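User: I've been trying to design a sequence by hand for this structure and keep getting stuck. Would you show me what you'd pick, starting by listing the structure so we're on the same page?

Assistant: Good idea, let's start from the same input. This is the structure you sent:
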């Protein structure tokens, strides 16, 4: 009787090992698919984007203030321009994929310990980014209501 129990135990451990190996193979496949999806999202967001509207804490910014503002995203970096002057630069990283948008982090080169967590959506030639001040957490919706401190910016791709 003890022999049969040992045999069952050994077979059970072998099956568990096979299950872990199969699960690891699926995890690797999922990681590869996720890496491909992130690369695709990075391709979509790269380019030069002109600001067309901005709402900060529920208040719409005047068009005059936005007319010369651009954002250039390339190779995991971003540069913000006001006219021809560089107004900021840093790194950009996609940290999560959702059904219709992705989560990303912007880090300013001048404040590398400050991470702006945002949600980003690209629809054709329109880029929408919603973020809160550093340390306030990532928004979950694309809106900027009074008191939220969220910044909602809409850009159009320059051609």
């Amino acid at each position: 009787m003890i022999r049969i129990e040992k045999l069952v135990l050994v077979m059970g451990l072998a099956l568990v090992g096979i299950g872990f190996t199969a699960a690891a193979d699926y995890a690797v496949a999922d990681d590869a698919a996720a890496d491909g999806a992130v690369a695709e999202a990075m391709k979509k967001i790269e380019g030069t984007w002109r600001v067309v509207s901005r709402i900060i804490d529920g208040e719409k910014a005047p068009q005059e203030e936005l007319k010369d503002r651009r954002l250039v995203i390339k190779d995991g970096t971003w540069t913000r321009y006001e006219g021809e002057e560089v107004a900021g630069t840093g790194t950009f990283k996609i940290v999560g994929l959702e059904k219709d948008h992705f989560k990303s982090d912007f880090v300013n080169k001048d404040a590398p310990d400050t991470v702006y967590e945002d949600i980003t959506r690209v629809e054709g030639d329109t880029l929408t980014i919603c973020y809160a001040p550093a340390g306030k957490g990532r928004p979950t919706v694309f809106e900027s209501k009074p008191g939220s401190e969220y910044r909602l910016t809409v850009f159009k791709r320059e051609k």
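That's my pick for every position. To get oriented when you compare it with your attempt: The longest strand covers residues 85-97. Residues 38 and 94 are 7 Å apart (CA to CA).
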